[in-house]
Amino acid sequence: MPGTPVPDPSISERLERLAAEWAKAPHSKVFVQLAEEYVKAGLLQKAAVVLQEGLLVYPGYVIAMVVLGSIYQQMGEDAKAKAMLEDAVALSPENLKAHRSLAKIYAAEGNIESARKSCTVVLMTNPLDDEIKAIERNLAKITRILPSQPLEPASTAGVAGAGGPTNETTALDRSVESNGRGEGATVSMATPNTMTHSEESGGSADPEQASKAARLQNWLSRIQARRRATA
Questions:
Q1: pLDDT tens digits, 144-160
Q2: Does this entry carry the keyword Transmembrane (predicted)?
Q3: 104 vs 153: CA distance, rounded Å
Q4: 81/85 Cα distance (integer angstroms)
Q5: Among 30, 29, 32, 63, CA closest to 48
Q6: What's the rounded Cα separation, in Å, for the pair 146 and 158?
């Protein structure tokens, strides 16, 4: 059986040293390093507090903003993460770490255009980033599917009755899934071809797959109706 993980004593030593340095010089930028050590130790809340206090002294310090945004994301506070990272990008438009985190957040909430822009920034510098490439491929699938469904608008009651989401954001959330909010996020998407293959080949359709296809059509109809209403 695996043994109990042994804490890294060097982390504690670095934390103590950096905490002492910051206490002696509260206007020092050492607070970013201290926050990163807290993250390594799994103390995300303490790391966030340190960065919040440091940014009061150094507002607009992009490095600290990006680290704080990443911490918010790991804590599951995507709204705070997005706001902080967008502020960082406004100050530093080419910041890869900020765009990498934003690509995941935008994709998860169904903001396709913004997600693609952030993916593009990352891939221009690092075209071999497999995680971002996977997100971009999934976004491409979504944009191909949306205009390819010339369906009549479905009523709100019909969408709810089919068990589907009642708004565009929730619908697209089903299209981009994550296995975690940190660096290990992946995406997946079921396409209409995989859901209707048995029908196209002349065989009997799987009731569950047919239900999924119907629900997807209802969702897409709802999205198209909403877009036409706001056009």
A1: 776 544 434 444 443 34
A2: yes
A3: 30
A4: 6
A5: 32
A6: 19
Structure tokens, 41: 């130790």
* Range list of H helices, the chain: 9-24, 30-40, 44-57, 62-74, 78-91, 96-109, 112-125, 130-145, 156-161, 168-173, 192-200, 207-230
CA distances from 15 to 70, 71, 130, 169 (A): 20, 17, 33, 41
Q: What is the pLDDT of residue 141?
A: 86
DSSP per-residue letters across 80-126: HHHHHHHHHHHH-TT-HHHHHHHHHHHHHHT-HHHHHHHHHHHHHH-
Residue 92 CB partners (closer than 8 Å, separation 6+): 62, 98
The more confident residue out of 43 and 226 is: 43
Token match 């957040």: residue?
105
